[in-house]
Amino acid sequence: MTRRSVVRRGTVLLWVARHALAIALALMFLGPLVFIALTALMSDRQALTSDLWPHTWNWGNFAEIFEKAPLLTWIRNTLLYSVLATAFMLVSSIPVAYALARFRFRGRRLAFLLVITTMMLPPQVVAVPIYLIWARFHLTGTLWPLILPMLLGDAFSIFLLRQFLVTIPREYSDAAKVDGCGEFRTLVRVILPMARPAIAAVALFQFFYCWNDYYGPLLYAGTDLDSWTLSLGLAAFRSVHRVQWNLTMAATLLAMAPVIIVFFFAQKVFIEGVKLTGVK
Fold this sequence. Notes:
It is built from 15 helices and no strands. By secondary structure, it is an all-alpha fold. The chain has two domains: about 5-60, no CATH class; about 70-275, MetI-like (MetI-like fold), CATH 1.10.3720. This is ABC transporter permease subunit.
């Protein structure tokens, strides 16, 4: 063994020793995903055994899911819920966060305290009165009771956006006002481009929450099969096909794939936004 190979091997071992905890945590998180993927490619009989590696690669399991369940309808409803709720949240939360971060008015601290207080209120506490309100508008059985409230803002998103906006120096907005920009134009032309990491972070938080939400769709859309999301559909699919774990795992993998892909392409701006929102 040459000296160069010995040094290279020592460097690799040193790197493994330094990152042993991170490697162990990565394997711990990747283990369930690998198990789901391997089980999704097994046959019906093998999925019920203790074997961890597929004897045959049954790629047809993914096509069989679409034949046995309205998966496209569930995906469409989930996308509708996630995209509209995220868009409405951004439209309503950004101006509120901007006002709390940049304006000086009486009661500003109290308003910010109320925003934080609403974050501590469990949704189950107000579920009954809110459900009765939407029932009077005949919107129960749909996803609109979950989408329309986002037009009133989201407390967690307002909090994160406000924490980022207070870190932007006021000199930028003052210079824009000197050039003749009003508050709205300053927000759109100056502040929003600088706040892209925070906006991306809260948008991804909201999108992931809506994509994985089970309680809300169960409460409002549980009686209408055509309004089911992926979370409701997968729960029902698991109950009907509880013996066919290969199909259940294949459906689970398809439900997770969009979220993983979105996070993979947006992880840099997402992590940057989360980091910067906690500066102050």
